[in-house]
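As noted in the main text, all predictions were made from sequence alone. Below is one such record, for Branched-chain-amino-acid aminotransferase.
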Amino acid sequence: MNFTTSDKISVQKIEKSRINEVDFDNLTFGKDFSDHMFECDYINGEWVHPTIRPYGPLTISPAAKVFHYGQAVFEGMKAYKDANGKVFLFRPDQNHARINKSAKRMAIPEFPKDIFFEALHKLIDLDRDWVKPGNGNSLYIRPFVMATQEGVSASPSDQYKFMILLSPVNAYYTGDVKVVVAEEYSRSANGGVGAAKAAGNYGAQFYPTNLAREKGFQQVIWTDANEHKYLEEAGTMNVFFRINDTLYTAPTSDRILDGITRKSVIALAKKDNIPVEERPILVSEIVEASKNGTLKEIFGAGTAAVISPVSTFNYKDVTYELPPTAGGYSTKFKKELTDIQYNISEDPFGWRYEV
Ligand code: COI
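Prediction:
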């Protein structure tokens, strides 16, 4: 993959790195940030002053529209280091396209591709030491845009700030995930913002997810808002179901995020002639398949979650156990995906992008 970058970004470097203050063996996902960050403002109809500067606080008006109307979207990407110290991104063009798709839905102006790529190159280059080698280690990249115009009138902002932060991470979920199928709350509805990585989509899940956590589940698998009959996504990841040897996942729509890991898993499955069906999946089908022993696996797929096997799912207060995942599709796809990401295997789809 190759993209043109601009040469527009000014850089203010840190005086002293904070890298020695970070315990890379005991990271909490998204808690530590690297030395530098990128920011660019949208003023008078143009993106201006693209700058990389030391990571640190911002000065923003308390009346900025982001605080009142949640006009904000984000992305999740990762940088991976191979055994020779080369650093790669995974399908970054997809993240750029998706942040602009999310932005459009939230009435936010699109961000130029050349500045996006130049920012990634320069930022990662400066903070290259923050990308640790070894499978599982990565530098999580958080591009986001927020509405910065001062004023509480309920209308789109005319000023925005686009930023990129870098956070060293290990696994998002340690071990298998226990999920509960949503019966009361919903993540998204037809015509809503479910397909956008809008900040509020995630905030809205915290309360029902807390209720699920109190009962011992890490995640909720959301169902359609109309009838709670169809399985959709898990909020931090898309979800795959394996019945016999066929892989099923909900089709993308205006309710479901068009996950980059999701589409990569589908491509990997198709390459190996594994049957994949993207179609609405009834909760009752999965319950029935679990009862008759044909449900072999459930796993989540996402940038942060990578491939996360589900060990049990709960529906209407009944817990269904999944068979052990060893040797299953989730193990296979996780290996194939991470081998591409860490430059261990060939890259037949051209997904790797060196920075
Ligand atoms: C990602 O996988 O990048 C996500 O968006 C999940 C995030 C909310 C932690």
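The first helix runs from residue 65 to 69. The chain has two domains: 10-170, 177-341. These features were considered when defining construct boundaries for the mutagenesis experiments described in Section 2.9.
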